[in-house]
Design a protein that fits this description.
The chain has helices spanning about 5-15, 20-50, 85-95, 130-135, 145-150, 160-165, 210-215, 235-255, 270-315, 315-325, 330-365, 380-405, 410-415; strands at about 60-65, 85, 100-105, 115, 120, 125, 135-140, 155-160, 180, 185-195, 205-210, 220, 225-230, 265-270. By secondary structure, the protein is α+β, with helices and mostly antiparallel strands. It is elongated.
Length: about 425
């Protein structure tokens, strides 16, 4: 039930002690403010890390051969491993359910790229259609290599935005133009780009895998196996699925190429999701640290509220004695102290919440720091934190209130 007289008493007490109440409120509001800002930056770091791993598909796996370093089954170390089309086909048949996309890369050796009698210093790579998704490439013009190009050994090429700028700057579009690769003419059918600032992949000209192998005496050789695994929803499940796939794939490749299971250099695997897991773990530790600092700050504010309420009780000891002499109930006295404690804590807590959320909303999208992107915080989490703070404020006010009701009436009336 709303008691106007009790609220008048609370406001009278606040007016009499403006500075003390203000400083107490600032300590509480700053605790919430600091906590929300820290949590916002923790989320910003997670957003930044996620953005860093979007250069290629986050669940991609890259496989390439090296040299053996361990003698195995009578085979000497130092052998160079050569991946072949058969390896790609067997993995597709035996482990096809473990991935969403698969592609290969073959790099013809000693090829010369010429356009308009000018030698172009770019790499040529034979590949298949799924590489676009795995590499997270976008098309600026035309189309990418498709299955028909690979099946029919078509002499078509996809160039990058960088090559377009550097070689075809005088043309509105390079589509339909021909480049010569070691004497063979290839028609440009598309222009691709890479997300992000890294233009390393834009040094390549992509042609169909079958065409590269047939035209440049590649046989059935390939240089890379590339896979994109499905996102399992959680980082833990995604990592477990990728580890299972890599284990099965390496077991097959080691067996067919006569490689010791302990030889880590013969078949190389780069699994970005494992690196992402380490970064996410680091982010989790940083968030925990932010929570710890923020909670400690809030506790300091709550302790300040408790100390102030103890001073209030001390100052009003005689008043409390008079109230008890006039028949005031212990619960009424406790409620009087608690109301003031909860009021100060709630107003301060929500003020800190509003200020911090507004700051993140205004400043967050404009922050440009490495590995920090759009700092933000879940409003429900922040609101729940304030509610916990209010409860803590009530607890902080309870002990001084309990001390007040335990003072004997005679002793309270004698207090000066």
């Amino acid at each position: 039930m709303f008691d106007i007289e009790r609220w008048q008493e609370i406001f009278d007490t606040i007016r009499k002690n403006k500075l003390r109440t203000f400083l107490t409120g600032v300590s509480v509001a700053s605790g919430i403010f600091i906590l929300v800002i820290l949590l916002g930056f923790g989320q910003g770091m997670q957003n930044g890390i996620e953005a860093e791993f979007k250069g290629d598909a986050a669940t991609s796996i890259w496989v390439w051969p090296g040299r053996t370093t361990i003698e195995y089954k009578g085979l000497n170390p130092g052998r160079r491993i050569q991946l072949r089309n058969e390896n790609y086909d067997v993995i597709a048949n035996q482990m096809g359910e473990g991935y969403e996309k698969a592609s290969v890369l073959y790099f013809p050796q000693n090829v010369k790229v010429v356009y308009d009698n000018n030698l172009l210093v770019y790499n040529v790579a034979g590949t298949t259609p799924d590489l676009q998704t795995i590499e997270n490439e976008y098309l600026s013009e035309g189309r990418y290599i498709n299955e028909a190009d690979v099946h029919n050994n078509r002499k078509v090429a996809v160039i990058s935005n960088k090559i377009k700028r550097e070689v075809f700057a005088d043309l509105d579009s390079p589509l339909g133009e021909y480049i010569t690769i070691s004497g063979a003419g290839f028609k440009i059918i598309g222009v691709f780009g890479e997300y992000g600032d890294d233009e390393g992949e834009e040094e390549r000209i992509f042609i169909p895998l079958s065409t590269a192998q047939l035209t440049f005496n590649g046989g059935d050789k390939i240089n890379n196996l590339n896979y994109m695994l499905p996102d399992q929803g959680s980082i833990g499940e995604t990592v477990a699925n990728s580890e299972k796939f890599v284990t099965e794939m390496k077991s097959y490749l080691n067996e067919v190429h006569g490689v010791s299971p302990e030889d880590e250099r013969a078949i190389r695997v780069w699994n970005p999701i494992e690196e992402a897991k380490r970064y996410y773990a680091l982010t989790g530790n940083i968030k925990f640290f932010f929570w710890f600092v923020g909670v400690c700050t809030i506790i300091a504010g709550v302790v300040g509220v408790s100390n102030i309420m103890m001073i209030v009780v001390k100052e009003r000891t005689r008043e409390i004695g008079i109230r008890k002499a006039l028949g005031a109930k212990p619960l009424g006295i406790i409620a009087m102290i608690l109301h003031e404690s909860i009021f100060v804590t709630a107003i301060s807590g929500f003020s800190g919440l509003i200020l911090s959320m507004a700051l993140l909303e205004i400043v967050g999208p404009n922050i440009e720091i490495d590995y920090v992107l759009n700092p933000s915080v879940n409003f429900q989490v922040a609101f729940a934190t304030v509610i916990v703070l209010v409860v803590a404020g009530a607890i902080a006010g309870f002990f001084p209130a309990w001390r007040a009701v335990r003072v004997h009436t005679i002793d309270a009336l004698r207090d000066e």
